[in-house]
Amino acid sequence: MEPRNEDYIKARIRTVPDWPQPGVQFRDITPLLQDPKTFRVLVDTFVHRYMDQKLDVVAGVDARGFILGAVVAYELNLGFVPIRKKGKLPFATVAEEYELEYGSATVEIHCDACHAGDRVLLIDDLVATGGTMIAAAKLLTRIGATVVEAAAIVDLPELGGSKLVIEQGIPLYTICDFAGH
């Protein structure tokens, strides 16, 4: 019997203990990207979920959300919008600051990245505390778009981010989670 896509993908995510600091279990998605079959299964999981939805664009969050978001956008025959860390976009931008565990960060989007009423799929690699995903969704909303769903490969539910994203009224889909690990 073939494993479910979720199990297949989760089994190929590398856990790096104590990185970037002691006590952190870093979930490394690079093995998903390195193997052609695994990368295809990953992309196809998202494409099959969204291929029949009425979407106008895919937005990806800097930096790992770019990898997945751009490929999914291509496969869905949609445009791709980068949501970048502060200071990386060359044209007029809209910015959103959010809190990190220690301090804050800012993400930006070009002010003309979407049109009013555009239906957007927002993609990142994982949901930890939810700050980046929520800030990205706020940016899209501020320029007139509607976030149809936020999506990620991994949910780290113990950090509370997925709960916060959903509480903000943002539908959320993740392929797998690492609860209790």
From TrEMBL:
CDD domains in UniProt: PRTases_typeI (cd06223)
Q: Name one GO molecular function term.
A: adenine phosphoribosyltransferase activity
Top-rank taxon: Bacteria
Name where it's found.
Cytoplasm
Return the Pfam families for the record: Pribosyltran
In this protein, which residues make up the domain named Phosphoribosyltransferase? 48-158
Pathway noted in the entry: Purine metabolism; AMP biosynthesis via salvage pathway; AMP from adenine: step 1/1
Q: Which InterPro entries match?
A: Ade_phspho_trans, Adenine_PRTase, PRTase-like, PRTase_dom
The Enzyme Commission number assigned here is 2.4.2.7
**Keyword ATP-binding among record annotations:** no
Keywords, sorted A to Z = Cytoplasm, Glycosyltransferase, Purine salvage, Transferase
Q: Where does it primarily localize?
A: cytoplasm
| Reaction(s) this enzyme catalyzes, per UniProt | AMP + diphosphate = 5-phospho-alpha-D-ribose 1-diphosphate + adenine
Known PANTHER family for this protein?
Answer: ADENINE PHOSPHORIBOSYLTRANSFERASE, PHOSPHORIBOSYLTRANSFERASE DOMAIN-CONTAINING PROTEIN
Q: How does it assemble?
A: Homodimer.
NCBIfam families registered for this protein in UniProt = apt (TIGR01090), PRK02304.1-3 (NF002634), PRK02304.1-5 (NF002636)
Which protein family is it in? Belongs to the purine/pyrimidine phosphoribosyltransferase family.
For this protein, the record's HAMAP family field holds: Aden_phosphoribosyltr
Q: Function, please?
A: Catalyzes a salvage reaction resulting in the formation of AMP, that is energically less costly than de novo synthesis.
This chain's protein is named Adenine phosphoribosyltransferase
Per the UniProt record, the source organism is Jeongeupia naejangsanensis
